[in-house]
Q: What sequence folds into this?
């Protein structure tokens, strides 16, 4: 079962969509990381390097924030089986960042107060992706994905 965020009057809700459990199993561009604080930086460098290889330098900054937040959340689940980080191009106009872990705990977007020292991560992911992020529940874990739109190709026809 896949759950996607959907903006409704400024709030995020989750809706069920068809199964997408093969996200992390398909194609290359996936790295397995330990549940350690250092994994956040490794994941960030991995995703940013891949985007630069694809010539998508305009998406590097937003992707770095997104993957950092998703890996940080994954590392806090208490699960220690595996954490997978992937980056895909499902279409020429979309980059998908994926973080899979062995926990079925669902991510929760909360309203962090002005004095809160944490709790803004998923709200940032939601804003940077224009609400295009979601969760795929797996038998032994989940995959959280976030989609960014690539810049429109330049039409160089005469």
A:
């Amino acid at each position: 079962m896949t759950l996607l965020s959907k903006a409704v009057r400024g709030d995020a809700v989750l809706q069920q969509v068809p199964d997408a459990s093969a996200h992390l199993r398909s194609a290359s561009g996936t790295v397995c990381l330990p549940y350690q604080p250092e994994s956040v930086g490794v994941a960030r460098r991995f995703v940013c390097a891949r985007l630069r290889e694809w010539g998508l330098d305009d998406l590097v900054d937003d992707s770095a924030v997104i993957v950092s937040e998703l890996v940080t959340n994954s590392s806090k689940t208490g699960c220690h089986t595996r954490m997978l980080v992937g980056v895909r191009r499902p279409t020429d106009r979309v980059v998908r960042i994926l973080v899979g872990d062995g926990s079925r705990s669902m991510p929760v977007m909360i309203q962090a107060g002005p004095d809160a020292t944490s709790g803004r991560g998923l709200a940032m992911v939601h804003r940077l992706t224009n609400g295009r992020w979601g969760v795929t529940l797996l038998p032994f874990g989940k995959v959280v994905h976030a989609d960014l739109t690539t810049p429109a190709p330049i039409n160089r026809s005469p």
Observations:
- Residues 1-28 have pLDDT under 50 and may be disordered.
- Strands lie at 2-8, 11-17, 30-33, 83-91, 94-101, 133-138, 141-149.
- The first strand starts at residue 2 and ends at 8.
- The helical segments are 38-53, 60-75, 121-128.
